[in-house]
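Slide 14.
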Amino acid sequence: MATAERNDGAELDAFLSAHAPVKSDAHFAAGTVVGDWRLTGFLGRGGSSEVYRAVHAVSSKAAAVKMLLRDDAAARARFDREARFVNANEDAAFPRCLGAGEYEGRPFVAMELLEPMALPCTDRAVADYILAVAAGVAVLHSQGLVHRDLKPQNVMRRENGDLVIIDFGLLKHVPTETADRLPMSISVVDGKAVGAGTPRYSAPEQFGGGEITPAADIHALGAIVDECFKGRLPRCWERIVRRATSSIPGQRYRDIRTFMHAVRTRHRARHLLTAAVFAAAIALAAAAVIWHAESNLEKKSEEDRLLQERIDREHEEIQEMLQRDVY
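Slide 15: predicted structure.
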């Protein structure tokens, strides 16, 4: 009976949490029906949009509904770019699109509801985390796209633990020919640079109007690793982060696959060093044995020489004695 009451209480808490009133600073009130979705919770706000927890009006399926608030041309273009990408891509590294439309002239997109996650802090956990994120980034790069705003807040997970990259508002197509590449464009919204990403993770060229390449995402991944270890990098990660976050794009890893290989083989240098030290120790030991053996041989030869000289002297003395006795 007590167990049933506890279960009922847990279910009630979960229901109330999922259908909590939207915070007062949100633009839309709780209960607002947006397309097929009823808003039930406020999840957060970006530079030009807000994200709400919602449930489907018929199936009650939970979702995250992202709505554009700022309706200037640049913001609309970024929102439409993200909506198109999420709708077109079915890779597990990206959120599933559940629908899209407009509400009171404002576009919205409904996506699967994901969970935030804490950054890992141990060597193996950080490697698994960053490789999973990098695998998603590799999919983007293979399509000629650069995310430009990779950060821990834009990496979430499903209930099964799979990592998912979100927020594609700054997604940029990078032409394959260098001559066709365009410099970074930045606009200012409410005193903040829009298009430059997040300063803690963004590459220098994103703020300096430089050419944007996949190296910008590699810089962000290196910065995320640094944050995982709170700046106290284990030795096997130091070289990786230093190269990934170089201020010069050309000195970073040449592509995301090379970065991933460096992460997977981060301990190899240490193992090679250990093997080299071990081999050197064996060589020194062998040299010592040989030297000892040669020393013993030299010592033995010297003893034989002295003995032979003694025998020769005694033989000469005997010969002299015999000659005296004869004569």
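Speaker note: The chain has a mean pLDDT of 83.
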